[in-house]
Amino acid sequence: MSRKFLIAGNWKMNLTPDESAALVDEINSLTGSQTSVQVCVCPPFTSLPVVSSKVEQSEVHLGAQNMHAEPSGAFTGEVSAEMLRSLYVSHVILGHSERRQYFGETNASINSKVIAAINANLRPVFCIGETLEEREAGKTMDVVGAQVREGLVNYPSSALDLLVVAYEPVWAIGTGKTATNEMAQEVHREVRKILSEIFGESAASSIRILYGGSMKPENAAGLLAQPDIDGGLIGGASLSSKSFCDIIEAALSTQA
Ligand code: 13P
């Protein structure tokens, strides 16, 4: 069982196409040829074409931040898996807490998207995580456990090589508050246990579980050194090539 680190940048609703092009140029020149740590950037939809053309010649992967579960139709404002594939997108963030909180996504609707993504051969970066209120009420594992079980209903074992899970405690996103290494590891270990109940121990041991929530160069090494943390989903710190690539450096030295 060896799990290569994945460091993914979620640019959220930031950067015009020109700004995105400039950022990906810098990332390409700093880390675009190494393959020891997998790197993925997830720009907004409007920047996917230009970023796609720029990562074509590098080892950087391209992700989207959302998609619709249906292949086509009257869904104003949405994009399909096939549309993403046509731009050489390989990963798609699904079930991010901001989608759950502001756009009404549920475990069931996220499950439909996860299944649609793998049917299109896209890698879902499937997000889970508890709110501060849930953590303080001692419900972290109940919430995260339900998110995993309901979000992965009918997930075929044959497509497990595509699956990436991202644990992002909601209270740590954009707040500067990071889970301690121990807190994060504890949830990651439990999530892997749930995955092994669903898919079996051996399969669960190869699924990557990323940590997200105020990850930055200063805390990345400690988090990535935890046995069940297999990378990061980075928000704010992925908008600067320096801090994003410093996190990749931390992953490279932790892996070495
Ligand atoms: P921050 O790194 O800005 O806390 O965001 C994390 C996140 O939501 C990544 O998806």
> What is the CATH T-level topology?
TIM Barrel
Ends apart, CA distance between termini: 16 Å
Name the average pLDDT.
Answer: 97
User: What kind of assembly state do the chains in view correspond to?
Assistant: single chain
Could you say which small molecules are bound to this protein?
Answer: 1,3-dihydroxyacetonephosphate
**Number of helices, where a helix is a run of at least 4 consecutive DSSP H or I residues:** 11
What string, H for helix and E for strand, traces the elements in order? EHEHEHEHHEHHEHHEHEH
* Poorly predicted residue ranges: none
Radius of gyration based on Cα positions: 17 Å
Structural class: alpha/beta
CATH superfamily placement: Aldolase class I
Task: State the share of residues found in helices, binned by percent.
Answer: 40-55%
Compute the number of structural domains. 1
Largest sheet: 8 strands, parallel, barrel
Could you tell me the strand content as a percent range? Answer: 5-15%
User: If strands are numbered along the chain, what order do they take across the biggest sheet?
Assistant: 1-2-3-4-5-6-7-8
Query: Outline, from the CA principal axes?
Result: globular
CATH class, named Alpha Beta
E-strand count: 8
Written overview of the protein:
The chain has a single domain, classed as Aldolase class I (TIM Barrel), CATH 3.20.20.70. Strand 1, helix 1 and strand 2 form a beta-alpha-beta unit. An 8-stranded parallel beta barrel has the order 1-2-3-4-5-6-7-8, surrounded by 6 helices. The model has no long low-confidence stretch (mean pLDDT 97). Helix 1 runs parallel beside helix 11, helix 7 runs parallel beside helix 8 and helix 10 packs parallel to helix 11. It is built from 11 helices and 8 strands. It starts with 5 loop residues before the first strand and ends with a helix. With 256 residues, it is of the alpha/beta class. The site of 1,3-dihydroxyacetonephosphate has 14 residues, from strand 8.
